[in-house]
Design brief:
binds coenzyme A, 2 domains, Aminopeptidase, alpha+beta
């Protein structure tokens, strides 16, 4: 059941849906509710969005189904999918006694995804890849606690091998927390990360006491070891890297990853990338000089 048209704007605000998208989303409510076929598709996609149908984050899942929605709904259909899924995730959060502010800040990633969409395409909506990402939040797997997001997941094979080789015997698949670094949240200062990590230790012990996480891991362009050669030692990115022990080396380059995160569009032509900040200059200059960027993989012990 969708909230009525009068309640919808407040609900969208709580999800940090950008102001300029709100009227358009609300205006489409009639198109969504008028057609039983669309309502059925919406319910099915909402179930998918909460991990009720298939493996969470399956790239062939939600986005492909959502593409069956009428063209008139455009890229806003996925927003309705998450609005429909909202009671499910709220109930999940309530059952775990997740504080309201954590719940709100976590689910506000929906609006962040829409802001990133507008930045990249110049129009409102939510891209399927953001929708796949949000299934982690809507099935209760991911939480934002201050500067960082934490995903309850299973330890990957290669990270498990690295941790074991460093002296702590762990098994692939055992519980692990993956750290993510949201955009539009100010600098990644060491103090903000420390505060977030302190909160997270208490949060997971309190709300998921049955899960023991041996390590926290991170898989990000921010952990490419080459960044240290290009950025000052006191830059936030370098200080963030220093928290991690080496995981494994990715042989595959991922040049479009930092381009996407820094400039908002992974497909931008490298020769035209702006050079306004030190990170922009570093990402573009290295590629223009024929270099490559890699996703780095790191971990550190999770103290309980
Ligand atoms: C991670 C992040 C917060 C780091 O920003 P920061 O704390 O300012 O980082 P640093 O202190 O190391 O960098 C300082 C310099 O880089 C610039 N910079 C950092 N991130 C930038 C970005 N995304 N776009 C443009 N410039 C950026 C800063 O403006 C500053 O420039 P200056 O030296 O010319 O003054 C920022 O890059 C960001 O929000 N990235 C998007 C999210 C992301 O990449 N997540 C990881 C997904 S795997």
């Amino acid at each position: 059941m969708l909230p009525d048209a009068d309640d919808l704007p407040d609900l969208l605000l709580d999800l940090a849906v950008p102001h300029e998208d709100i009227n358009e989303v609300v205006a489409l409510r009639r198109t969504v509710t008028a057609d039983p076929g669309v309502r059925r598709l919406l319910e099915e996609c909402a179930e998918d969005a909460t991990g009720g149908v298939r493996e969470v984050d399956d790239p062939d899942g939600l986005g492909a189904r959502a593409a069956e929605a009428p063209a008139a709904l455009g890229e806003y259909f996925l927003v309705y999918v998450f609005v429909t899924a909202l009671p499910h995730v709220r109930a999940l959060h309530r059952a775990r006694e997740i504080p309201d502010d954590v719940s709100r800040h976590t689910l506000a990633d929906l609006g962040r995804g829409m802001a990133l969409h507008r930045r990249r395409y110049g129009r409102g909506g939510l891209a399927p890849r953001h929708a796949h990402w949000l299934t982690r939040h809507f099935c209760g797997r991911l939480y934002q606690l201050g500067r960082l997001q934490y995903e309850r997941t299973g330890l990957g094979d290669r990270t498990a091998r690295a941790v074991t080789a460093a002296g702590t015997a762990v098994t692939a698949g055992e519980p692990c927390l993956d750290l993510h670094i949201p955009d539009f949240h100010g600098p990644l200062s060491p103090a903000a990360c420390d505060r977030s990590l302190d909160r997270a230790r208490k949060f997971f012990a309190r709300h998921f006491p049955e899960e023991t996480h041996a390590v926290a891991a991170c898989h990000s362009w921010l952990l490419d070891p080459q960044l240290r050669q290009h950025l000052p030692a006191d830059s936030n990115i370098v200080r963030f890297q220093e928290r991690f022990r080496p995981g494994w080396e990715d042989p595959e380059s991922a040049d479009t990853t930092p381009v996407g995160f820094v400039f908002g569009d992974p497909d931008l032509p490298v020769r035209d990338l702006p050079r306004r900040t030190s990170v922009e200059r570093m990402v573009g200059d290295h590629l223009r000089a024929g270099g490559h960027w890699y996703v780095g993989h790191g971990w550190f012990p999770w103290e309980h």
